[in-house]
Amino acid sequence: MLRNLTAWHLIIVVGVLVLLFGANKLPELAKGVGSSLKIFKNEVKELTEGDGAGATAAAGTLAPAESVAAPTAERAALPE
Fold this sequence. Notes:
Layout: H1 7-21, H2 26-59, H3 65-77
């Protein structure tokens, strides 16, 4: 999807952004997006660190592979 992007596409996108927000607002917009991404990254990091103990406990509650495979074998035996 993004393979067909060229320099002209980027120039047009930047031009539209300048027209919509104005040259004075673009630095504020970029700063806001950057701080939002930083907050998001920190939250994801906290969630993955906090789930380290929970993920190992949850792994023991998963059903064995044999019981998961059984319904598909039953479905294969049903007439279509």
